[in-house]
Specification:
It is a single chain. The chain has helices spanning 12-22, 40-53, and strands at residues 2-8, 27-30, 33-37, 60-66. It is an alpha+beta fold and 92 residues long. It has a single domain (2-73), classed as 2-Layer Sandwich (Alpha-Beta Plaits), CATH 3.30.70. β2 and β3 (33-37) form a beta hairpin. α1 (12-22) packs antiparallel against α2. The radius of gyration is 14 Å and the shape is globular. The protein starts with a strand and ends in a 26-residue tail after the last strand.
């Protein structure tokens, strides 16, 4: 499934730790926004990791699921870079 994850983390240390760990799952496209393709089992791991890293009384993380029809309709305005799907090398 294709996801967009954004966050608002109050404390710098927690925010930096979450940022580093989110890079293991998705592409970093803006300061507090990640997106990309993620398998269902990895999504569960992502959720657990986020819950372990944040303080749910003051921090917010949003996970948006985009359907196949929605992905090509994504607009990037300004200096943003559209994140293409990762290329996979094939051995023939």
């Amino acid at each position: 499934m294709y996801l967009v994850v954004c966050y608002d983390i109050v404390e710098d240390r927690r925010r930096n730790r979450l940022l580093r760990k989110l890079r293991e799952f998705l592409s970093h496209v803006q300061k507090s926004v990640f997106e990309g393709e993620l398998a269902d089992d990895r999504l569960e791991s992502l959720r657990h990791m986020v819950l372990d890293e944040i303080d749910p009384t003051v921090d917010t993380v949003r996970i948006y699921h985009l359907c196949g029809r929605c992905i090509p309709l994504t607009e990037v305005l300004g200096t943003g870079v559209y994140v293409e799907g990762e290329e996979v090398d094939e051995v023939v």
